[in-house]
Amino acid sequence: MMHGSLSLPDRQQLFSDLRPLPLLIISSVALMVMGVVMISSASMDMAAETAGNSYHYVIRQLIFAGIGCFLALVAVNVPVAWWERSGWLLLGVGLLVLVLVLTPLGRTVNGSTRWIPFGLFNVQVSEVAKLCLIAYLAGYVVRRRDELLNTWAGFLKPLVVLGVASILLVIQPDFGATVVLVTAAAGMIFLSGVRLSRFMPLIGILVALGIVLVVTQPYRLKRVVSYLDPWKDQFDTGYQLTQSLIAFGRGEWAGVGLGNSIQKLFYLPEAHTDFIFAIIAEEFGLMGSLVVLALFAVLVVTGFVIARRAELANMPFAACFSYGITLLIGLQAGINMAVSTGLLPTKGLTLPLVSYGGSSLMITCISLGILARVEMERLDQQRLANEKKRGKRVRGGAVYD
């Protein structure tokens, strides 16, 4: 299905010594626990000032984490075939929530209408839409692979869906989610075997549209200018980035210690959400930052291993879906950390599993549950194949001596 082909012995030996499920669980739980600890540290003063309770945000994050773990267990028990059969339903859900948020149902915060209130918490619709659209596109890649690889029409059809979703995201506006969705989808389509030459016109169009979006919106243009030289206007457009860089500078090698951050004391905006990586760097220094980076590297590599193994086991939808999910998580984490360190312009993206936010945490947990399900189904398939090799008869999924 994907780029490159291996002989059967190579396929059997590929990553044979790796155990992706334990690595997936350990890295995910470690990041989630680190997130709870850092939210507790970064949000106490903010919570005391805005909510009258120093533990307001950490208590909510613990509740979200509990719900997320439950949803991950639910996702583990949902067959991958259900996601494949439900592609059109998921596409409808993804586009519907993007439309609903633009109606009076949507809630506006800091000039962006990205949330739909649901009682005790708000749902960020872009998180739901990204997973739904990746599931639909994975199904399209499998169903229409020949058309996708050999005709421009087959290549352009999924791009139309992405275009509609991107327009709805930009209207909110949520430029960061648009970049993550489009890049992850393009990566998934490329891994399906589409030639790089087909992407060149698309890349040119996306670059041109990106420039237009930046130039036509003053706040985006200011972000780009402040990104190039944040110290030039450090008390206005460059304020967030300069405060984040100060946090990194204060952290030095080993950090100032848990709870001793100065930047979280109303200097760095969104310290417990978009810029929590800067607080980690301040309190735990370069060493702590590298630990977070290593955990995300393990998580992303594990996701790609699961996807590749599914591909070699002739599970095309599971492989494509796993590639898409892993790209979503990896891109969002990479962009968030790049923004905090000044490598990219400021965007409103959370750090998966670490930043405060129920929608991001719960959808990420569902995504990890899907990855675990893919690996479990592959292991079951491998077990049945091994039983056949031992000369046993397999009927209806059960093994008989």
Task: Give structural notes.
This protein starts with 7 loop residues before the first helix and ends with a strand. The strands form 2 sheets. It has a 3-stranded antiparallel sheet. It has helices at residues 8-13, 20-50, 56-76, 80-85, 87-100, 125-143, 145-150, 152-171, 175-191, 196-216, 218-228, 239-251, 276-312, 316-340, 358-389, and strands at 107-109, 112-118, 121-124, 393-395, 398-400. Helices cover 70% and strands 5% of the residues. Helix 9 runs antiparallel to helix 14 (316-340). The chain has a domain at 24-75 and 173-376.
Keywords:
401 residues; two-stranded antiparallel sheet; 15 helices; globular
Number of strands: 5
The percent range for strand residues is under 5%
Low-confidence stretches: 4-12
Record the strand order, biggest sheet: 1-2-3
Classify the secondary structure makeup into a structural class. mainly alpha
Radius of gyration: 22 Å
What is the assembly state of the chains in this entry? single chain
Profile the largest sheet.
3 strands, antiparallel
Shape verdict:
globular
Helix content: 55-70%
* Distance between the first and last residues' Cα: 34 Å
Total helical segments: 15
Give, in order, the helices and strands: HHHHHEEEHHHHHHHHHHEE
User: Quick check: average pLDDT?
Assistant: 84
